[in-house]
From TrEMBL, chain A:
Source organism: Ferrimicrobium acidiphilum
PANTHER family reported in the protein's UniProt record: 1,2-PHENYLACETYL-COA EPOXIDASE, SUBUNIT C, PHENYLACETIC ACID DEGRADATION PROTEIN PAA
EC number assigned by the record: 1.14.13.208
Endpoints of the signal sequence: none
Xref: Gene3D superfamilies: Ribonucleotide Reductase, subunit A (1.10.620.20)
Domain of life, source organism: Bacteria
Protein name: Benzoyl-CoA 2,3-epoxidase subunit BoxB
Biological classification of the source: Bacteria, Bacillati, Actinomycetota, Acidimicrobiia, Acidimicrobiales
Gene that this polypeptide is encoded by: boxB
TrEMBL record, chain B:
Record-listed E.C. numbers: 4.1.2.44
Source species of the chain: Ferrimicrobium acidiphilum
Protein name: 2,3-epoxybenzoyl-CoA dihydrolase
InterPro entries on file: Benz-CoA_dihydrodiol_lyase, ClpP/crotonase-like_dom_sf, Enoyl-CoA_hyd/isom_CS, Enoyl-CoA_hydra/iso
Domain of life: Bacteria
Gene3D superfamilies: 2-enoyl-CoA Hydratase, Chain A, domain 1
Amino acid sequence: MELIDYDTQIPNNVALASDDRLKRALEQWHPGYLNWWNQMGPNGFSESEVYLRTATGVDPKGWAQFQYVKMPEYRWGIFLAPGDPERKIGFGEHAGEPVWQEVPGEYRAMLRRLLVVQGDTEPASVEQQRHLGATAPSLYDLRNLFQVNVEEGRHLWAMVYLLQRYFGRDGREEAEALLTRRSGDEDRPRMLGAFNEQTPDWLSFFMFTFFTDRDGKYQLEALAQSGFDPLARTTRFMLTEEAHHMFVGESGIGRVIEATTSAMVQAKIDDPFAVDRIRSLGVIDLPTLQRYLNFHFSVSLDLFGAEASSNAANAFAAGLKGRFNEHKIDDDHQLASATYPVLRLEGANIVTRDEPALTVLNARLRDDYANDCANGVKRWNRILEKAGIDYRLTLPHVGFHRQVGEFQMCPVDPEGVVHQATSFEDLVATYLPTQADREFVASLMQPVYERGSYATWIAAPKVAIDNKPGDFEFVRLHG
Amino acid sequence: MIDFRTHPDRYHHWTLKVNERVAELILNVDEHETIGTGYQLKMNSYDLGVDIELADAIERLRLTYPEVTTVLVRSAKDRVFCAGANIGMLAGATHQHKVNFCKFTNETRLFMEDAPANFVAIVEGTAAGGGYELALSCDIIVLVDDGSATVSLPEVALLAVLPGTGGLTRLTDKRKIRRDRADYFCTLEEGIRGQRALDWNLVDHVIPRSRLGSLLESLVPEASSSAPTPNGINLNELNREVSADAIEYPHVRVKLDRELGVARITILGPTAVPSSAEALHGQEDASWLIATARELNDLICHLRFNEPTLGTLELMTRGDLATAQHYSQSLEAWRDHWIVREGLDLWRRTLARLDLTSRSLIATIATDSCFAGPLAELIWCADRSFFLDNAMTGMVVNPMNLDAFPMMNGLSRLASRFLGEPERLGELPAQFGVELDAATADHLGLVTFTPDEFDWDDEVRLALSARNGFSPDALTAMEANLRFVGPETMATRIFGRLSAWQNWVFNRPNAVGPEGALRRYGTGQMANFQRERI
Amino acid sequence: MTTSGLLRQHLIDPEVCIRCNTCEETCPIGAITHNDDNYVVDPSICASCGDCLGPCPTGAIDSWRVVSTPYSIDNQFVWEVLPDNEDELLAEPGTDDVEALELLAVAHQSAPRAVAPKSASTPRINVATRRDPIVATVAGNYRITAPGTESDVHHIVLDLGSEALPVLEGQSIGVLPPPRPNAERSPAIRLYSVCSPRDGERPGHNNLALTVKRVFDNGLGQPGLASNYLCDLARGDTVRLVGPFGDTFLMPMDPAANLIMVCTGTGSAPFRAMTEFHRRHLPSGPGKLWLFFGARTRAELPYFGPLMKLDRSLIEIELCLSREDGVPARHVQDGIRDRLEELRTLLDQDNTYLYLCGVKGMERSVRAVLNDGIVDWEIKESTLLVEGRLHVETY
């Protein structure tokens, strides 16, 4: 095996060079990681030079270094956001105490579970997206895909670092297991449902990065509040990278909408439901977009778990996982007697019930998330508005097409109406992408690898990354 | 009122599927279908209602589906086998309910082990606490390793209680896991998975899902060509009438004396003897052997949960002693027939349940008594017995009393009774089949007191009313100690040691106090323990 | 960044922004906030430190408008698109040219809070505007790297005739390349550091000199428009100039000041100007001039000959050659590392000024060495910036 100079190969700010125990653990893990990347990372393109952003430091200047890199040679680093020696635990029963620099014994298991669940999602999305390179609509999008992939890989490193540094032998075992599970695998699936779904086409990819990666943002932000300081600092830094993933999703769908609307305007088609005519222009019709949106939003909601959760309550009370933007919330950060309004299904009615806030933290985080999604949809609608197309995208009701929680398998339509006479399967089928939709989208998935060219169904970006113009050679395909 | 009568057609939580020799017991708990209020049965967690169905299924597997040799116990829920007893239920239940719930679930687990079929637990996902204990009660545990499936006993770490459904005991006594490893395992909230679970013998097989099918095939034994396949009998719903102060089954009559806190139970003896084992089989669930045991079993469960203040059960029989004895003799002769074997086993389990019932048991043998065969066991189940000395006979000892109904300590009730006078056992074969009167029974040491007609009423009434004056707790504890003499078995360790400690823990503030772990679980608030060791 | 009452305001493009909160999270002084619709920069707080620029995933953060009155956050909260530049502001002589400001902002990105040395002369800004550029005549155009090397750097002397274009050492001027035929818009201006001192390439002749490197590939596979235009100019050709620009990257008017100048390639231009000023006007000042100059080979080093002829009592030169045959490869940062001890001693003096000019990669490497070698470099750096003693212009 080739010896690796870890101090230079792994950009880090965790004093890796002087931490023998950690170095040994990483040395043992690293070959397995590379092996995983080669097996499950992007299919092909390992020789291509990709214009990637590499984090080399945690200060604002240090983590956006752009250069051409072959993906297997990407320098996956380990970074913690700068620490604050005065930082205090911000919520729960230990509020006001200094943050922990080592794992508190009584919370070891809970913390490890949080890390493992979070860590498991990172490589999963790389696995889900590994075939997309073959149908990229442009070099720019190809680059964005690979950026997302290498950064999810880095997020895996981040979680593995915490497991190996703070959780001894168990942590090392968990770190190994993160490499052995596989998205969608019958025997060793990833832990959460949405991460075992396929990402078969680029529309799904953009939806995934908009909706599912946004779940990541909310989970990471809640963990960035943690009283366990290394976790807080790790996830805080991850958040800055996660933002790029959502940018890929939001701008990706935005560009799809632009391509569709400008084609419709050009062909003088007013009716957004003239699906066949619109499709014949080589663009994706808006109702199909809506159905993709319905699917990805609803499966992403499942990632927040059941509305009421004792695990979430425990993690909050323990000071391990806070609420979104906990530090900006103006309350006692204890939730001893606070309530929170939760949607409940009572017979055929969806009603709001005030419940002990501590027990329904998942519902709250989900609501914050849904609001964020709604704002993104609003911005997409501006494109439609500007183009004068009489169609608006909407988020379905949170009860629609749910496999987890209060509305699990309940026939709730996107408007929030409960249909007692219809089965769950029949109802959701009306609003989710049909086989024909998927086949049509698949038919558009032809690679466009010429510099500055974009597939018909997606517009060129308004601003490309790193101040580069849209016709920059974002990927040198053949080295 | 909690009703223990159910049927696979009415199950909410389990599905019993039988395909020739292989049965599947599939757990898919309906979270809204609860016995109590204020909790939901998430993640395949269970309350008494779930276990009532399991107990029913196990009985039906023996009597209705005797051809089944392998029972696969599995979950229909994704990534969770079973999360154990529901914590919200435990936190909210009365102490009385918790203790009896645990007792019933423990009996069910033991009856699974007692069944002739091979039980295979297929653990896909999480088997936590009572979920793993359910798997531990199976003969074989298969862990379908998807990289996250675990087995765990997190009670100590998470809830400040014990894995009280035999978990601790089965680790050490059944699976012979080293106590230091068991100690480690029982303090791990998140449990153990994969290869280490196998290395430590926490499970028997660790395999990927894609190989589950072929493994299961190999676990189902080949059909034996020599043994004819028995035909099972249907178990119809028990008829019973419950009124304010009486409960009536076809073969069991109960009068409830609430003033004295006594349930006066009279079991009617058989009125006729079937001509052959096949004829008995032909009576299906209406045969005296089967029907009476089922009724008595249902009654015991009913009294435990629905009549907690009736502290004493008076056990009586009524019928023709000669017919009862003839019936018993026939059973002795037909013990090779599967329905007789199963019938006697059903009696054995029912009597064992009676042994474990925390009520004072007083047997009274008077005019028209017919304590023969299985019924005679009731005398030795009792904490005390009274035989009216009026020259009438009322009981018969049979060989089956020495070997067909062992208690949970592995000894027959007679052997337990004469632990200090083993020579007494030697005197018994000479009396087999003989109708005994009070004096003879007293002489043989088979009864406690033999008052004559003048003293009878006073003596019996005094005994019952005195019982009613003592502390119910002290009586429960005293009786449980005196009933189980001699050797320890896994079962006695579960009921005598594990359950007793668990019931103690269930009363301690560290578990159930306002700041205890059980009470605070799920609220997000951490438990606040009293640090004093007791 | 204000001159003549105008402000260059930092804004966020609401059409591009995805509301990811990264900027708000990153801003060290809480200048960024948001409502349900927009993320906005509070002009009363923002110090233009640039910390938010790199982390922004979209580029929305990198939006600027020159305004007379800054847009309030309440203004910005309701925007759906950015307002247009206030065009009429651009014409006024003596005010900033927006395009030039943007270009300089990028060059000064990593030291955006720099201020001019206290003793620096007051710079004039945008004397020649784009509406009214100065037409200069080419007095000379010489290749100053050896023939046959990959690097084609030209020294171009421009005669300003009778026009006034007062330039200080370190300032840039803008070149307006001729419009392409049929093009809708005239090409963007390009900024070049002037390599001659304030009194011109040759005193009394009202001229100035530029150092221009020919760009063969601008990242799009095309030759650079302006550099090729300039390098191809012949004596007697005319060229339109605007500017000057830049009001911080200036030299102290203090004979005792120490100037540490770090550069690669054409980054040497301002240092040539500063050195020449010293040679002409402060030859015996006690201050030390110290130049760290990186190039691949001697032959590719602009001004190699003239540089070597300078009197060593005027300036100490540390050449760092990365591809010179027979010499171990050495980059600028290696030169710095070798002399770190002296550098540190010098920087501890209040009258030492540090200048970095050249490619961004050089800047990164040099910063890394300083960070490793100088205790509390980050603190030191902000002190230097505040005192006008650290200047960075990289591209």
